[in-house]
Each structure stands twice: as C-alpha cells, then as structure tokens.
Amino acid sequence: MLLFLKILKVGVVTEPLAAGEPDVIEVAREVETKARRLLGRAVAIREVDAGSCNGCEIEITGLTGPVYDSERFGIHFVASPRHADLLLVTGPVTRNMEIPLRKTYEATPDPKVVVAVGDCARTCGVFRGSYAIVGSVDAVIPVDVFVSGCPPEPADILRGILTALDRLPTRTGRRDDP
Amino acid sequence: MTVDVMMAAAQGLLALALAPAVVGLVRWLKARLQNRRGAPPWQPYRELRKLFQKEVVVSRHASWLFHLAPFVVFASTLAVAVIVPVLAVPLLVDRIGDLLVVVYLLLLGTFFLALAGLDPGSAFGGMGASRGVTVAALAEPTLAVAIFALARSAGSTNLGEIAARTIADPLSAVSPGHLLAFAALFIVMLAETGRLPIDNPATHLELTMIHEAMVLEYSGRYLALIEWAAALKLLVFFALLGNLFVPWGLARAFTLEAVMTAAGVFAVKVGVLAVAVAVLETRVAKLRLFRVPELLTASFVLALLAVTSSFLLR
Amino acid sequence: MTPELLLLAVSVAGYTGGALAALAFRGVAARALVAAGALGGSLATLALGAWCLATGTTLAFAAPWLPLTGLALRADGLSAFFLTVVGLAAAAASIYGFGYSAHHDGRDSLRLLGAMFNVLLLSLTVQVLADNALTFLVTWEVMSLSAYFLVLVEHDQPGTVRAANWYLAVSHAGFAALIAAFLVLAAGDMTGSFAAMRSVGLTPGTRDLVFLLALVGFGTKAGVIPLHVWLPMAHPVAPSHVSAVLSGVVIKMGVYGLMRVALDLLGGGPAWWGGIVLGLGAVSALLGVLYALMEHDLKRLLAYHSVENMGIILLGVGAGLMFQSYGLPALATLGFVAGLYHTLNHACFKGLLFLGAGSVLYATRTRNMEDLGGLITRMPRTAVCFLVGAAAISALPPLNGFASEWLVFQTLMGGALVPRPEVAIGMPIAVAMLALTSGLAVACFVKAFGITFLALPRSTEAARAREVPASMQVGMLVLVGMCVALGLTPFLVVPVLSRALTGLGRLPMTPIGFSLHLPLSVAGVTGEMSPLLLAVGVALLGVLTAIVLRLLADRRLRVGDTWGCGRIGQTPRMEYTATAFAEPLRRVFAELYRPTEDLSIDFHPKSKYFVRTIAYRSEVQPWFERLLYTPFLSALRGAAAGVRQVQAGSLHLYLAYMTITLLALLVVARWSR
C-alpha cells in the first residue's frame, strides 16, 4: 500500500526532450524514407556492446527509466536481433566482437537502422591503436547515425535514435509526444 | 442460424481488434505506475503493423514446422476467442466447443510453439520450450478442477450454459465456490499468459524467459502472428474471468442495442481486469522458476476448495 | 454357413497359413507370406467385428476340440468391438512387419517371429470370442506364451532375456489368479459356460473375492500399477510391429477380461469395486506419465505411456462400474463407452507411435533420443506420422485422443450427480489427476518428437538416416488415417459403442446420442462439442490468415544462422538434450523420483579452467522394484532355500522319507480301524 501511495505522490517525472547541441549527432547516411516511415512509430532496439567500457551502457539504461522514458516514443528494447529494427552499438569493435557484431547485423531483418553510440564507436576513442581493436563500428557494419560523447548523455542518445528515424520533434515539427 | 454465425464472426473480429489494445493498456498502466509517461495504449497496433512489413529471417536448420507453427497458434487462439462468450450467449458456436475444448485448443497452441522453439536447434528455444510446457502442464489440474466447479453448478461444461446459470441465479456469483474458483483461475491466467510473477513479459535476460525464449527465432509476419496470438490469449482469459463469473451485460437477444451494450460492458470488464493485472505486476517480483510450482499448487488447492465448498453448501 | 462363421474361418485360415509359411519358407518369400497371412486374417477379423457391431448379430460356435468342456465361441457386442480393435492394429502391424523384419532375413529368428506373430493374432481373435472358462484360459495362455516368444525374438540384444523372463513370471502369476477366479465363479464346476456363470447365485463375499482375483489377474496383463514393471521391460525389446500389437491389443485384453467378468458375468457390484478400479486407473495414469517423462529410450517412453493410457481407460471403466452401483445406468454406459473408445484410440495412436519408433530404430539403429535429431528432413513421412501420433496421445483436438478424454472428463464430472462425500471429494481429484496426466503427456511428447526429429542430428547414425521402405510407411499411414477419422467422428463411434454395451451387466438399452449439432445429454450431464466443425473452423482460420498475409504483408524471407548470441558456428552439442528438457519436471517431482545424480568432470591436467569431458548420469528411483518386487523376490528365494533343505539330493534321505511315510501310514491305518 505504501508503495502505491508513494507512486501517486511522486507522479509522472518524465522530462520533455530538450533541443540539445546539434553537432553531437552526425548522420552518416540517410535512412530510406520507406524505412523511416515504417519504423517511425514503433522501433525495437537491440543493444550491442562491441567491446565498450560500459560507460555508454549505463547511459543507455537510463533511457528506459522514468526521467528519459524512451518508451513514449514507441521505442522498446528487445533481446533477440530477429525482433529488432535498430541496432544500438557501443564500444570500439574488439577482435573478439567483430564476428558477433556482423552476425547480429545479419540476424536482424530488413529494414534496419544502425546507431553507433559514443566516441569509441566513431573513432575508437581512447583505445585507438590498441592491438585488440579492429576499428570503428563503421568498419564492420554500415552505420546510419553517430552519437558522440564519452559517454553521451541519455538525451543525446535518444535524440540520435530519433534523428535516424527522422522523428526528432524540433526537426519535423510533428505534434509528437514531447 | 445466419445471425448466429454473424455473431460468432463479430465476436472473433472484436476480440482480434481489441486484443492488442488490452496488452497496450496493461503496459501503459504499468508505465504510469512507474512514474513515467509510457507509450500510448494503442502502441501494440503500431508494432504489429510494423512487423507485418518486415522481412522474415529463418534459421537454415529450421524445418516446415517452424513455418507452420505461427499459423497453428494464431488459428487455434482465434478459434478459442470465437467460442468464448464475448458478446452474446447462447450462441450456436457454444455447441462446437465447450470449456474443455477451450483448454485443449490453447494446449494445442502451446504444443506447436514449444516444438517451434526446439526446431532451429538453439539452446534458448529448448529452454523456453522445456519451461513453457512445464508451466502449462502444472496449470492443467487447476484449470480442470475450476471447470469442474463451474460445470457442477451449471450442470454442463457448455460455456453458454454456465453464463446463463449464473445470470439466472445471481447469488451464486458470490458463493465461496465461485470466488475461490475465480481466484484459482486468475492465478492460472497469469501462468498461461506469461505475466508476473510467473514470467516477466518485458525481460531481456534469456535465462529468465519462458514464453519469450520460445519465440526468439521468429521475425516479421510470423512474430506478428505470435504476438497477436499472445494478446488474444490474454483477452480470452479476461473474457473467461469476466463473462463466466460476472456474466451480466452479455447480450441475450441479438438486437443492435443489446450487442452494443454487451461490447461496452465487455470493454469495461476487460479494463478492470487490466488494471488489476497492471497493479499486481507492479507490486510483485518475478518468482524463481522452481517456486512457480508452489504457486500453481496453491491455485490448485483453491480450486479444490471451490469444488468442496460448492458440494458442502448445496 | 453364416457370414460371421465364414469370416471367422477365413481369419483362422489366414493366421494359420501365415504361421505355416513362416516355418516353410525363407527370406523375402517368408516375410511376404507371413505378412499376407496376418493381413488377411486381421482384415477378416476386422470385418467380422464391424459386421457384428453394425448388424447386431451374435455369432455362436461350439466344437468338442478341447477336453472336458469343448471349445465354445460367442460374439456379443463387447467381443465384436474388441475384434475390431484386434483387426485394426494387427492389419497395420502386418503391413509394417513385412518391411521391418527384413534384417532378420537368413536367420532363424525370422521363423520364430513370423510363426509366433500369427499365433498371437489367432489367440487374440479367439480369446475375445471365448464363451466358457476353459476356452478363455487356454487362449489366454497361448496368447501369453506367443507374446513371450515374440519378446525373445531379438535375444541377442542385452536385457531381452531378462525382460522376457519378467514378462513370463508376472503373466503366469496373473494367470494363476485368473484360474482361481474362474474356479470360484463357476462354483467349482469348470464345465460351465459363461451363460451358466451369469446365472449362478453367489454370496456377496464370494463375488468380492472373484472380483479381486480377476482384478489382479487382468491387472497384470493390463499393466496396472503396481503390476506394471514388466511392461517397460518387455515392450521395448520386442520387434517394433510386435510392440505395437502388444501395447495396442494384448494389454487391452486385461480391460476386456475385467469388463467381461465384472460387468457381464458378475453383473456389477458394490461401489467400491468401481472405486478401486478408478483409483488404480488414476494412479497408473499419473505415475505412468511421470516415469515416461524421465525416459530417453524412445520405446521405453512409449511403454510407460501405455501404462498411463491403460490408467485412463480404467478411469472410464471404474467410473462406469461405480455409477452402475449407484443406479445411474446412463452415466455408467457413458463411462464404459469412454473407456472402450479410449481403448480403440489407444490401439491406433500407440500402434502408430511404436511403428514410428520402429522406423527410427530401423533407420538409425538406436532408440536413445540423446543420439537422434534432425530426422524431420531425413525421414519426412515418418516424422509427420509420429507427429500425428504424438498430437493424438497428447489429447489435442481434433484427433482421437481428445475425443475419448473429453468423454472420460464428462463421465467424471457426472460424479456431481452422486450425493456421497467420498465421490464428491474423489471425483475432482480424479479429474485433476487426469488433467495433470494429459498436461504432462504434452510435455513428454514435445520432448519425444522435438528431440528425436527436430534440430540437428546428434550422432552420425542420425545424420545418415534415410526414409524407411514403403510397406512400413503404409502401415503407419493406415493408423494416421484412423487417428484422424476416429477423432473427427465421435458422433458415429459413440452410438455404436453404446449399442454394443446394451444388455451387459443389466445395463438398459440407452444408446447415447452424440451428433454434430445435438448435445451429449446423459440425464443431467450435458456437454457439447463437434471436433469435425472445430477442425474445419481452425483450418479455415489458418488458411484465411495465410491468404490475408500473402496479400497484405511483406513476403520477403531470408535464410540465416540460428541466433546464438553471435557465436561462431553451431554444433549439435549446443542443442537442448532430452535430459535437460525434462529437468524442470524432474525437480518439481523430485520427491517421487528421488533422482541420484552422478557428475564427473575431467579437467585438463594443466588447468582447472579447461574441461575435457563431462559425464552426467541421473537415475530415477525404481520405487516399485525396490519396495515391492525385490523384497518379495528375496522372501521367495528365502523360502525356496528353506525348502531346498528338505530335498537335499541324498538317496538315503529320500529312502528315509519313504520309510517314515510308510510306517506313519501303517500306524494311521491300524489306528483308525
């Protein structure tokens, strides 16, 4: 009972998505209009840790919490890439994760979108030049959007996902969930 | 007869149309109880529409059974939705299947889904299949005894008869037998539809999955069929709980206003049950897999008490 | 000569011809003639049974071929029904046997197999027609002995001889009980026919005694718990078409005998008769399926399921006996109809499953599920047949297992009409046990079919499997057709069965109506269902969905790897095993199984983190052997050892015995003068 009283007292704490800095998000390739329209309202995300330090993962877990609430945009996380539309990849791709990352990409049905999160995913970050790294995510699978940051804020990650789907509220001006 | 067939078809279509909304409603309520906005209750429709347009990726080790299973699961669950009293009672379709047929048709779906989990040769699928059939098997006695309790007072396992008998004798709805049977069936509903505390429908950890693990290999339109069938199953159980135990509102005559009232009352009942499930899922944590038999045994005891009390309090 | 006698004569001629052909010919010719003889005989049997059921004629035949009482045969409704069961299962098994027994070519075992198969079928046919005690007992013994020899056919395999010995011993223990039962029933006059036995007046105590003796005797044949231990030993080691007949027909003779004695000759009895049968049925059903779950030998699993299904049949029969004693004849008829319907269905789907298992054995040379897999692509038709059998035995609509289980459920629910507390408590528990049994059967057959046929082959034998010869496929397909037909048409079967039962045990003529649209209405219990319309409905919905999907949804399909978290490659060792599949249930029912686990891990000598092999072995406690049979056998051995002291082998001792006896007799004779 106390639990429900507390829930009622606290109320909904979700913050509206702010505009944010534009150069944090880089669009590497435009997602097809058909795919954008299909996935625009309901997108399933499979997160792949291709060797990251888990800093980005912690930010990503914040996405499903009450403050950032990615679910209001129709985003939900799934366990199997067969169920997924969007791959959220973090980390510089290590040697051991190169094949699994490729296999995850192949296991995902079309149409699919890839968003690479973090500086490591884009430029290998602090791990650049290491013997254990194959290269940035772009070297292994085609990436649509990069989100920079070490680690990027959850709001930026969310904006990156929405940009890939062309559903960013300010850009399209659609009367969307805020 | 044609009116009957039309009513049955209408029931089926209504169930088909309403099922994703029920799942969406439960999810939305849970989101609000987690202090966040959540997706609107009609989100599952968007997801289904998206899934139907996606490509299907199939394992090279899968056989024809993998392709057949989603259709069997969907068709059998939809057939159950047509038989279960949703809008009107009695219908001719009541005579094609009674409560036992409903239980075994659902078991048919579970059988094929479990086989489809084993087909691609993945360990997750095997695990899901193993756990899925274990939970289904252990829920059977409770279902059967609850049916016994209901059939006993109505003198028949026919769904229409059971609903009609309760309408004719309103006091029986609050008899201990009915209440206990309701509680037992509620727990079985949670088990069969994969809700907390038996199975978390939103989990990503394969080792905690029961139903999800069986469908990890499915994608595209096959996955859409299976998700829709799962939503239908939830709706079917809501219909059984609502319309067998609290049957007022069901149309007895096939006039337009009776049917509209019935649809409205049904939506209300489903809404109430959805709130109950959402609140329960927020309150409890998932049980360890090997604690689930204890919960199902408790529901069996409740069902047995239901029958005994209905005998003693004749 | 009436048509019935003609059919009987053809049947006998067929079997005899087949048996003689087995002895006279060799190789393919022998197999073909054996199969032809058996098939001809069984088709005639089937025709005879169907004819008698359809027209309601009773066959009567008597001949002085047996000493003392002569051979007397009579076919009433019950016999006719069992004739159809015999004929159906035997026909399918005969066709199958032609291809299956090919690996016996050139060996003596082929003669034994062919001859004894036909002798078994002959004895089964005559058994259900027997109309006096001696005929019954003689044919019973011939049936048991021919089954024993059939179990022994593959005696070079380990465990066969032991299994056959157990079978023989338990069979004869039951036979002794049967002889006693008939002796008491006939009030000492063994020359009496069944007609005489029906009219003899016995005290209630004597009737109880006869019933109990008959229950023990027929229970050993039926494989009722706790008299079942021979079943999972004997049925797996016999050749597969023989296993099909053993499980499909021979154990049903226990049901036939029980109904003949308890219902017909004794005319029903007090409620506790039905109660005991019901209780034994419920326990057999549940324990049978629980032990089946833990089996990985495909045929042993099926044998335990036979125990389970015999339990379900006895649930129906026991309920029938019980309701008859409470004066509810319509409900009693329903119970017996449910039991008989399940008898027929079980013969079909169990026969089908054993033939399927035999095909797997033929193609891969192993019965162990843990070595199989991937057979659905290599043996596609066998896979479909096995799937139909698995769905039928799991009581999934619209197949035949569901139709008869539905009837058993309706019978048990009719218990609500009896206002006695023990029935009010007992019936829901019986319903619960039946439901749990069928749920566990689903689990077991998902395992059996899934591990055997799906995914990747787990051994080279499985990978090299090929589809079986045409005769074996035809045998299986016949039973597939019957499973589907019997499941879709209960409205045809039920009235025939209820007509067959009229007159037995003073049951009035109450044919139960069951049709497509009309309810099954049995004086207070109503339930309705139509598997035919259901099947049509579900199929229609499925086809509609497929069409809509084809038109509206995306049609792309790509083949990829199985998702395994991106690991490199997939081997059969990554699949789920049968042991792992059954593990949750092993844990849930651990109190019953008390499994012993033996895990040995072989590490790499240099590091504990690298494992070379893991060997896991888990055994289930054989409770019945440990608590019942082993003490009994050791007591028996102890008693025998004690008696051996008397017969010590010394000639002087024997002469001393004779002298003492002679002297004692002289003294007694002198004294009593």
What is the oligomer described by this structure? heterotrimer
Give the overall silhouette of chain A. Answer: globular
Fraction of helical residues of chain B? over 70%
Shape of chain B: globular
Figure out the total of helices of chain A.
7
Number of domains of chain B: 1
The CATH first-level class of chain A comes to Alpha Beta
Q: Give the SSE string of chain A.
A: HEHEHEEEHEHEEHH
Termini distance of chain A?
32 Å
Rounded radius of gyration of chain A (Å): 17 Å
**pLDDT < 50 runs, ≥5 residues of chain B:** none
- Please list the strands of the largest sheet of chain A in the order they lie side by side: 1-8-6-4-2-3
Supply Rg of chain B: 19 Å
Largest interface: B-C, 86 and 86 residues
- The share of residues in extended strands of chain A comes to 15-25%
**Biggest sheet of chain A: strands, sense, closure?**
6 strands, mixed
Number of strands of chain B: 1
Distance between termini of chain B? 37 Å
Write a compact overview of the structure shown.
With 178 residues, chain A is an alpha/beta fold. Chain A is built from seven helices and eight strands.
Describe what you observe in this structure.
- The complex is a heterotrimer of chains A (178), B (314) and C (673).
- Chain A is 33% helix and 17% strand.
- By secondary structure, chain A is α/β, with parallel strands linked by helices.
- Chain A has a single domain (20-169), classed as Rossmann fold.
- In chain A, strands 1-8-6-4-2-3 form a six-stranded mixed beta sheet, with helices on both faces. In chain A, strands 5-7 form a two-stranded antiparallel sheet.
- In chain A, β2 (43-49), α3 (55-63) and β3 (75-77) form a beta-alpha-beta unit.
- Chain A is globular, with a radius of gyration of 17 Å.
- Chain A starts with a helix and ends in a 6-residue tail after the last helix.
- Chain B contains eleven helices and one strand; from the N terminus they run ααβααααααααα.
- In chain B, α9 crosses α10.
- In chain B, 67% of the residues are buried.
- The model of chain B has no long low-confidence stretch (mean pLDDT 90).
- Among the domains of chain C are: 285-545, no CATH class; 623-672, no CATH class.
- In chain C, the strands form three sheets. A two-stranded antiparallel sheet of chain C has the order 1-2. In chain C, strands 3-4 form a two-stranded antiparallel ribbon. A two-stranded antiparallel sheet of chain C has the order 6-7.
- Chain C is globular.
- Classes of the chains: A alpha/beta (178), B mainly alpha (314), C mainly alpha (673).
- Chains in contact: A-B, A-C, B-C.
- At the B-C interface, β1, α3, α4, α5 and α9 of B face α17, α18, β4, α22 and β5 of C.
